C-alpha cells in the first residue's frame, strides 16, 4: 500500500519539474539564440519480485528446502533526471540592424557538435553564446546586450569605433582600418556546456575542451549580419507538452487520492475494534 503512495507521489513531482522546464521554454520563445531544454524522465531501478517458500524433499526426514519463484519486475516510480538543451539550429529573422549577427551551423564533424560566439563576462571569465544581439558600447567595443565583451579569434576585445562596420559570411568584422575575425568556438559535444543565464554557457568541469572553429577544416559556419537566430522553441508543441504534463500530474493525483481513501477504510473501518 505504501509503495503505491511513493509511486504516485514520484510521478507528480516528475511532472511538476517537467512543467517548470516547459514553462521556461515558453518564456524564452522570443529570446534570440535560446536553446530549449528537454526534460529526461527515467524510472527508478527495477525490483525483481520473487516468492519465497519451501518445498518438501522426498527423503526419510522430509527436509524442507527453501525455494524462490520469480514473479516479475516492478518499477517503484519515475523522476526527471536532468534538463538537456537542444542545440538544433533556430530560424533566422531579418532585423536590418548592423550589430545583429546570426551564427549558422554548417558542416560539423561530430553529430552533437555546435559553434558559439566567445565572450568575456564582467569577471573576465570566458563564456559562450548563440545570441548575436550585439551592440557597441560607449568606448567603441562590440558587446552583448548585457554588456559582455565579444572576443576575436585571438581572445581580444573587438573595437569597431562606432556602428560603421561590415561582417563577412566568414565572420570577419571589417572597419575602415582593420579586419578582426570573430572568435568562434566549437564544442564537439554541446551537452558538455552548462547554461548560466542571460544566454551564456560555460564548459562543465569534466567537459571536452572547446576548440577554435577556424582551425578545423571539417567545420563550416556562416555569420549573417543584420539577422538574428531565433529560439528553437516550437510554441504549439510546447503548449501541447505542457497540457500532457498537467494531465499526467492529475492522473497521479487521482491515484494518490484513491490510495488515501483505501488507507482510510483500512484504518477506520476494517481495523475497528468491536
Automatic annotation (TrEMBL):
It is found in: Bacterial flagellum basal body. Residues 113-174 form the Flagellar hook protein FlgE/F/G-like D1 domain. Keywords: Bacterial flagellum, Cell projection, Cilium, Flagellum. Residues 6-35 form the Flagellar basal body rod protein N-terminal domain. Residues 224-268 form the Flagellar basal-body/hook protein C-terminal domain. GO terms for biological process: bacterial-type flagellum-dependent swarming motility. Its main location: other. Belongs to the flagella basal body rod proteins family. This is Flagellar hook-basal body protein. It comes from Terrihalobacillus insolitus.
Amino acid at each position: 500500500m505504501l509503495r503505491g503512495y511513493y509511486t504516485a507521489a514520484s510521478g507528480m513531482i516528475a511532472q511538476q519539474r517537467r512543467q517548470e522546464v516547459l514553462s521556461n521554454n515558453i518564456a524564452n520563445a522570443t529570446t534570440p539564440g535560446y536553446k530549449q531544454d528537454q526534460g529526461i524522465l527515467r524510472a527508478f531501478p527495477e525490483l525483481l519480485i520473487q516468492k519465497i517458500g519451501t518445498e518438501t524433499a522426498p527423503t526419510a526426514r522430509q527436509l524442507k528446502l527453501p525455494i524462490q519463484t520469480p514473479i516479475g519486475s516492478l518499477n517503484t516510480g519515475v523522476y526527471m533526471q536532468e534538463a538537456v538543451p537542444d542545440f538544433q539550429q533556430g530560424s533566422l529573422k531579418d532585423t536590418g540592424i548592423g550589430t545583429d549577427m546570426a551564427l549558422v551551423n554548417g558542416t560539423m564533424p561530430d553529430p552533437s557538435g555546435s559553434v558559439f560566439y566567445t565572450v568575456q563576462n564582467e569577471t573576465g571569465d570566458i563564456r559562450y553564446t548563440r545570441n548575436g544581439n550585439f551592440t557597441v558600447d560607449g568606448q567603441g567595443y562590440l558587446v552583448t546586450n548585457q554588456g559582455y565583451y565579444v572576443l576575436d579569434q585571438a581572445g581580444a576585445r573587438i573595437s569597431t569605433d562606432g556602428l560603421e562596420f561590415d561582417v563577412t559570411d566568414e565572420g570577419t568584422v571589417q572597419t575602415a582600418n582593420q579586419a578582426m575575425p570573430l572568435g568562434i568556438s566549437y564544442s564537439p559535444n554541446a551537452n558538455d556546456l552548462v547554461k548560466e543565464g542571460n544566454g551564456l554557457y560555460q564548459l562543465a568541469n569534466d567537459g571536452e575542451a572547446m576548440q577554435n572553429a577556424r582551425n578545423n577544416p571539417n567545420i563550416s559556419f556562416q555569420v549573417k549580419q543584420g539577422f538574428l537566430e531565433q529560439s528553437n522553441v516550437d510554441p504549439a508543441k510546447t503548449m501541447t507538452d505542457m497540457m500532457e504534463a498537467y494531465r499526467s500530474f492529475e492522473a497521479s493525483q487521482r491515484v494518490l487520492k484513491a490510495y488515501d481513501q483505501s488507507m482510510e477504510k483500512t484504518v477506520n473501518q476494517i481495523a475497528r475494534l468491536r
